[in-house]
Amino acid sequence: MQTSPGLRPPRRLSRPSARRAPRASRHRRGLCLHAHPGPGAAAAGMRRARVVLVAVGLAVAGWVLAVPLAGVSLQVRSGGRGGGHEPAGVHGVGVGLVVVAAVLAGTAAVVLLAVLEQRTRRPGRWWARIACAVLASSFVGPLRADSLAAGVTLTGLHLLVGVTLIVGLARTTGCALPVDDC
To answer: Domain residue spans in the chain?
Structure first.
């Protein structure tokens, strides 16, 4: 069939059976770890444990740089407010408390991510939002520091652990953040 210049040939009508099926979501294609638990889920658990260990290690390194090397006295005020029965006092923040806080934060983050993977459609996105809100609320703690240097150091430790957990664990969801269909 010849056509004159500037005219298009007539379009072919496609058969209904020849249409392509809609593309399956990441969940149905098996790209999200939470959709198909198995060997991939165990590997994700190991990666998550490594992220928590890195966060703990960075917290200890930050404490070592600040307290023994830089000479910052990490002291926080406690009690004596809000009608509590405990007298006001000042307590030191040692390396043991730093390790315990980082391990608890990491464990809570991993558990929250696992629960969200089982119960939500977009676990990575929800987890990142909740984790950022928890990190922001954690800055209330450094406000009780005894000195400006202690407050800055504690804020830095919170940021170090929080950002490590948020970025590191977001990479273990099997869905890069942010993703529209995951």
So the answer is: 40-78+91-170
